[in-house]
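> call design_seq(struct)
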């Protein structure tokens, strides 16, 4: 026995405008019927009452004739009035129904085009009140986010293919050489394979962090801390490498240590990464200075960490370019994702990370600004990378 199919509503095929019009017509019919019934039931009694109060004396036949004439006059006037009012109300209801339904239909069509891949689709503000204006802004915001995500996906795919090409080609060439007995399976060959596979593993891990951060899916377990404590820990972790390279590493603190609400591990990762970059760019006998201070602006109070080195620097016009994915310095051995990850983590804390330099060979400055604890908003808690 086949299961009984659920019944479909009889008016399922009707559009929103038609439904609104039918609802308004029902209201009009109910109102008109109520008025007619009230007048026909109450009108004759009120008419007779007024005749009695006026002292008008008429016989029964004349009174019956007057009552009939009154009923006919009232009924005719009411019928004509209700007809005209009904037609006018119907026209207004049709216009209002269309005005309300059209923006919703436009929103449905816009979201359908977005689903079909037309990410340049936008919805105009219908000017029908804050609710529909919010709807149009939400649809446009969704379209912009989808467009940005798609552009990021295309760029990332192209960049990833370029970055994967070298290690994969190296691994393939090494394996082919081993198979043809050109290379022996010795420690050097195995180290080469391990190095290239490790490069692939680091690339995939870094890309995962970048993607999560740029899509705002990076969990930050924030807590109030003194930012100087985080800086000291990062300096302590880097001090041995600096000592071995012959580069001086100093901490300069101005005033009271600012308190911020951050994910300590993530901020430690950012500062350590910036210190590593500064070390790579600074020659032996050079120096790197980390300054921590509180900056009181007109509308906010920030904790500012500045890392200044005496290294190779960069052209001032490259201050933003160096934060792009896969852009790296001449001395860098990475894949060019460190600064991208660092900025994404800082921005997830509602802060900023900027770079500046007076030119090649004149050192560089990297400045982190984070809102102080009393001004800080909760960091984005989604999913940890």
């Amino acid at each position: 026995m086949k299961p009984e199919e659920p019944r479909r509503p009889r008016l399922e095929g009707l559009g929103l405008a038609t439904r609104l019009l039918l609802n308004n017509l029902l209201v009009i019919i109910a109102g008109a019927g109520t008025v007619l019934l009230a007048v026909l039931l109450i009108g004759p009694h009120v008419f007779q009452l007024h005749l009695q109060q006026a002292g008008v004396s008429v016989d029964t036949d004349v009174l019956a004739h007057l009552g009939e004439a009154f009923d006919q006059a009232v009924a005719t006037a009411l019928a004509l009035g209700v007809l005209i009012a009904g037609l006018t109300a119907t026209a207004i209801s049709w216009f209002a129904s269309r005005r309300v339904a059209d923006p919703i239909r436009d929103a449905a069509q816009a979201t359908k085009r977005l689903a079909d891949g037309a990410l340049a689709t936008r919805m105009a503000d219908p000017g029908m009140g804050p609710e529909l204006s919010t709807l149009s802004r939400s649809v446009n915001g969704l379209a912009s986010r989808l467009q940005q995500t798609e552009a990021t996906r295309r760029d990332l795919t192209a960049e990833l293919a370029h970055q994967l090409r070298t290690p994969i080609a190296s691994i393939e060439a090494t394996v082919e050489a081993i198979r043809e007995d050109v290379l022996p399976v010795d420690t050097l060959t195995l180290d080469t394979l391990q190095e290239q596979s490790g490069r692939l593993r680091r690339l995939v891990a870094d890309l995962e962090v970048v993607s999560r951060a740029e899509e705002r899916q990076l969990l930050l377990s924030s807590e109030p801390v003194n930012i100087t404590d985080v800086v000291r820990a990062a300096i302590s972790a880097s001090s041995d490498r600096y000592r071995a390279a012959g580069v001086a590493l100093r901490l300069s603190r101005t005033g009271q240590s600012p308190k911020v609400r951050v994910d300590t591990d993530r901020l430690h990762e950012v500062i350590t990464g910036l210190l590593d970059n500064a070390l790579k760019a600074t020659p032996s006998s050079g120096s790197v200075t980390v300054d921590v201070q509180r900056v009181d602006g007109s509308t906010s109070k920030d904790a500012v960490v500045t890392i200044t080195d005496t290294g190779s620097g960069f052209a001032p016009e490259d201050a933003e370019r160096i934060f792009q994915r896969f852009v790296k310095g001449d001395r860098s051995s990475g894949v060019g994702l460190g600064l991208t990850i660092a900025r994404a983590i800082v921005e997830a804390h509602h802060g900023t990370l900027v770079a500046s330099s007076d030119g090649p060979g004149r050192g560089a400055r990297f400045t982190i600004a984070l809102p102080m604890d009393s001004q800080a908003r909760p960091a984005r808690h989604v999913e940890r990378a």
